[in-house]
Amino acid sequence: MVTIIDPFLAGLSGDMILCSLIDLGADKNKIIEGVKSAEKFLPNSVIKKIDFIKVRKHGIESTTLILDIDEESHERKSSEIKHALKNSLNEINLSEKAKNFAESCIDTLISAESRVHGIPAESVHFHEASSIDTLVDIIGVAIAVENLAILDEEIVSMPICVGGGTVTFSHGVMTNPASAVLEIFKNSNLTIYGGNIKNELTTPTGACILVNLTNTPIEYYPFMKIDSIGYGAGKKDFDDFANVLKIVKGSKKDNFGTDSVIILETNVDDVSGEILGNLIEKIMQDGAKDASIYHGITKKGRPTNLVSIICDNSTYDKITDTLITETGTLGIRVTTANRLIVPRTIHEVKLNFDGKIYTVKYKVSVFKGKSNFKIEFDDLKKISNFLNKSIKETESLIRNEIIKEDV
Predict the structure, then answer these.
(1) How many domains, the chain?
(2) Are residues 379 and 295 in the same domain?
(3) How many C-beta atoms surround the C-beta of residue 352 within 10 A?
(4) pLDDT at residue 60 above 90?
(5) How far apart are CA 93 and CA 27, in angstroms?
(6) Do 271 and 224 fall within a single domain?
(7) What is the Cα 234 distance to its own chain's centre?
(8) Can you give the residue range of the structural domain that contains 250?
(9) pLDDT of residue 170
(10) For position 330, which CATH number holds?
(11) When you count CB atoms within 10 A of the terminal residue's CB, does the N or C end of the chain come out lower?
């Protein structure tokens, strides 16, 4: 099963995520009962009314949150909010996984504010996030994802629209997205973009919930059968689109895993084979997932080498630096792509060959009920050299030993 969070058009907030999950089928009454527990742990905050109702946004029927609160405090220590959250979670009968998720959300928010303001986490004060509605969002989502069993499944996210223009908050006016939102997404693999709307489309609470639900970005929907769709409405209205977050739940074709990768390509026609061979070594050391070189013909019948590299966001900067430094290329084509990944696990076994113990790693993949395993080539090569046998002979020998071990 896979859950796709789709904030590509309207961004997301904490209440939009919560409403989408209720629209998807989460138990509304259980969530209302659970979030009300936060009242007793947050002084001077009263939930006068809470409900989830159906509304139409640009013709899309969706669920929205009705929340009427009475509060006196407009600023609280982050530790006060976290303490209230933990006490509320302890009172609700949630799994440890759901509790850990909720606590991670508030920790992410505190950490982002700490980095933005350059102060220790224990000194952070919340302004916009000081209201009890922050706890309603986080606790409500924790209950909902457990109720729908989403935390035990694959969760992915489409690119997140954050909007543009400016945002006004307790510290004044600044360009949108706000610094806290940028900090939250900075160390994740998720991708954001601005869009044409001069408005805040993604809030810090929504961002911190999302990055703790998933760190897997996708550019396109995977091959899947759709089981259910949830629409969560935001409070704002826009002329050009429905301010609605989509969450889609379904089963993926052939149970493939998915991720998004960056593909770097450049043509070089004045670099020797030795340099290209060294380039591949360096790029793989930099953390590339794969590197290939293809021969071809370009303009004026000129021979060329196409260098193609697969990497991710975490290694992108280092690899592009190496590519430019080593080849002298004047341009790199950058594209993103989704990958279908056959599920696999990594194993290791200790084998004795001629009195010497070797640790051999191998990957086991499963497809359509059939399993196969592949031996790590570096281990294969090392044992082949030691035994003075060919790679083929050594592979056959090791495969037989692994099969015996598994039996």
Answers:
(1) 3
(2) no
(3) 9
(4) yes
(5) 14
(6) no
(7) 22
(8) 2-255
(9) 64
(10) 3.30.70.1380
(11) C
| DSSP secondary structure letter of residue 188 | S
Q: Are residues 352 and 333 in the same domain?
A: no
Q: What Rg value do the Cα atoms of the chain yield, rounded? A: 26
Q: Facing residues of 339 across strands? A: 259
Reference 116, options 160, 178, 169, 167; nearest CA is 178
Q: Are strands 2-6 and 154-157 parallel, antiparallel or unpaired?
A: parallel
Return the CATH number at 371: 3.10.20
pLDDT at residue 407 is higher than 50 = no
Beta strands in 234-281 (DSSP E): 244-252, 257-268
CA separation, residue 301 to residues 266, 269, 292, 330, 331 (Å): 17, 11, 22, 20, 20
Task: List the one residue out of 261, 222, 262, 230 whose CA is nearest residue 247.
Answer: 230
Tokens 């009920």, residue located: 369
Task: Answer whether 346's CB lies under 8 Å from 363's CB.
Answer: yes
Give the pLDDT confidence of 265-309 residue by residue, as tens digits. Answer: 999 988 999 999 999 999 999 999 999 999 999 888 889 999 999
Pairing mode of beta strands 160-161, 192-193: parallel
CA distances from 29 to 209, 214, 216, 348, 353 (A): 21, 26, 31, 48, 64
- Does one domain contain both 334 and 349? no
Residue where a domain terminates, one of 233, 255, 277: 255
Could you give the CA distance from residue 144 to residue 142 in angstroms, rounded to a whole number?
A: 5
CB-facing half-sphere around the CA of 186: CA atoms within 13 A: 15
Q: Do 65 and 187 have their domain in common?
A: yes
Write down the mean pLDDT value for the chain.
89
226, 255, 284 - which closes a domain: 255
> SS3 for 238?
coil
Which residue do the tokens 């013909």 mark? 297
From the number of C-beta atoms within 10 Å of its C-beta (0-12, 13-18, 19+), residue 122 rates as exposed
Domain identity same for 82 and 159: yes
Residues 356 and 328 in one domain: no
Instruction: Identify whether the C-beta of residue 108 lies closer than 8 Å to the C-beta of residue 186.
Output: no
Read off the tokens for 216. 């897997």
Picking from 224, 229, 174, the residue whose alpha carbon sits closest to that of residue 204 is: 174
Query: What are the tokens at 161?
Result: 């629209």
- Rounded CA gap, 152 and 141, in Å? 15
